[in-house]
Specification:
Layout: E1 10-15, E2 18-23, H1 24-47, H2 58-73, H3 81-103, H4 117-139, H5 141-146, H6 156-189, H7 197-231
Helix pairs in contact: 1-3, 3-7, 4-6, 4-7, 6-7
Length: about 230
């Protein structure tokens, strides 16, 4: 777990005769992110227990700013206000989870779960299935399936490939940026002539700003994919 790239700790199990391998460190890092989100939610919930007529405290003001930011920058891009309100919890949770996952590498001895392709691909699949679910719910199964043969039936294979490529490109974009950043930081750490503080400053700078940008890009693409599936 030391260094920007960290180490792998692969566990191998067999379920029903099928071998399954998974990275224990990635799972532990993901649990840490989940624990941070739950703790943050409990702290915010406790801080919001006040009368409506009272002046908003600092925590409530900060939460209002965060909610307004997510609404204006992310869910406002949905084609309908109903869809935006319905998917706001999903998009907000996705953004916060990816953001905290990206920021986790700032803490010494910890690494970002988003540097593992399995994690980012699971996010991509989640967005993909959400987009298909809402598309079927709005269009109906018949009209949804008909969309794969439009404008010409001969385009059916291309439409299927194009739809299946979305979670791949979505997940690889986040993984590539985070893993590429880890490689860059590992090269900086290998420069022995640099002071100890310089790599730490670069790690903090990259983790905060690049992590925020990648979380925003991933979330805005999730909104775009769902919007296109529902409205196309």
């Amino acid at each position: 777990m030391f260094g920007p790239l960290g180490h792998k700790l692969i566990a191998h199990v067999s379920i029903g005769g099928f071998p399954i391998s998974f990275d224990l460190i990635t799972i532990i890092m993901s649990w840490i992110v989940i624990a941070l989100l739950v703790a943050l939610a409990l702290i915010l919930r406790r801080s919001l227990r006040q009368d409506v007529d009272e002046k908003p405290n600092r925590v409530q003001a900060l939460l209002d700013v965060l909610i307004d930011l997510i609404r204006s920058q992310l869910t406002s891009n949905f084609s309908s206000s109903r869809l935006a309100e319905e998917l706001f919890p999903f998009v907000a949770t996705l953004f916060m989870f990816v953001l905290l996952s990206n920021w986790l590498s700032i803490i010494p001895l910890l690494q970002s779960p988003t540097r593992d392709l399995n994690v980012t691909f699971s996010f991509g699949l989640l967005v993909f299935f959400m987009s298909q679910f809402f598309a079927i719910r709005k269009k109906g199964l018949g009209k949804y399936l008909k969309g794969f043969i439009e404008p010409y039936p001969l385009l059916l294979p291309l439409n299927i490939v194009g739809e299946m490529a979305k979670p791949l490109s979505h997940s690889f974009r986040l993984f590539g940026n985070m893993f590429g950043g880890a490689i860059m930081l590992s090269i900086i750490y290998s420069f022995t002539f640099l002071s100890v503080g310089f790599p730490l400053i670069v790690t903090a700078f990259y983790g905060i700003f690049e992590g925020m940008i990648q979380a925003f890009v991933f979330s805005i693409l999730a909104v775009a994919y769902i919007n296109v599936a529902v409205e196309s």
